[in-house]
Amino acid sequence: MTDIAIPRNVPISDIDPFSDEFLGDPYTAHRELREAGPVVWLERYGAWGVSHYQEVAQIFRDPETFCSSSGVGLSDFRKEKPWRSRSPLIESDRPEHTRARRVVTEVLSPVAVRQQKDHFMERATILVKKLVERGSFDAVADLGEAYPLEVVPDLFGVSKEGRENLLPYGSMAFNAFGPRNKHFHKAMENAESVTEWIMDQSRPGGSSDDGLGARIHAANAAAGNPAELGTILVRSLLAAGTDTTVNAIGSAVLCFAENPEQYAALHADPSLARAAFEEVIRYESPVQMFFRTTTRAVELGGVEIPSGEKVLMFLGAANRDTRQWGDDAETFNINRRVIGHVGFGYGIHACVGQMLARLEGECVLTALAQQVSRIELNGPAKRKLNNTLRGLESLPVTVTAS
Asked: What is the CATH number of the domain that holds 214?
């Protein structure tokens, strides 16, 4: 724990953002944090907490002051060894980050993503059609997991054998951003075999010659970077590009089941699918929180924070801050203007795969809107607790065909 004097104007909170109670339902605690002030001291972890939109956005806009290279989780890489080699996309600063991101954005460009739309839409339409014929299904396993685990590995050129390792690896990566609690240890139970498969797929020659993975390696080599960087870039994208989209799709189905009037609006106008997915990201925030570390003394929300301090950004809280989103911030509304939400990050560290995630979400919601007139819960939703992500373990639903 940091040995510093906490200013008198800083509220001290005993909220544990990694407790089962918080992870299961963070929103009551988010309200308490927002009401306490723009910056609070999280005494359980010796870190600063930020829940207001304005201050979270300030942190994202100033990556030199709020660095990522010391780790975007609770662990401080200046003092602790990471559980795996650092991601050059999310756990690095300029110029290393710029070099790595340039390789990925060259391959995963807006044009390249748009070229996948017809194929992604076709796969979503076929999958939803099969589910509609069944009538009742688990919206997590049968849709939220099934769709990304087909289209994304295909795009990367990943082997069909072993794709089940993508979800546990993502669970490992995101749980590692929190403390070494039971969620972390459970995620690490099969770490060796899962990591071995991921690394095999990430190395040069590990994926098909025409896949995104091979193209990243080619772009990395053309830039004169070491081959190891290409491997870590592919690994990072595989880790981050599955779990978050799985959780977003599952959350979308739950949001519409709980808000039938919003689904009726989408069903009446499937062109709202893209906007609806953005509202899901804002409202449920599949990635709930990330840390930064201060590189100098800085004022944040009227509080002087010393250099070398961990700051926890509550993205889910910022995305429901009434100062930014109005009095109905905690209402799900697909007609809301949600430009600027921090569900995909912000600034130079904005999620590099967000265009791909948006395309997946848009295609799934479009396919549902075109083929399904009503979504109803067919049992209780079961949460999947994770130190960083918000998502579902299962979501039994029944759908009515259009």
From this structure: 1.10.630.10
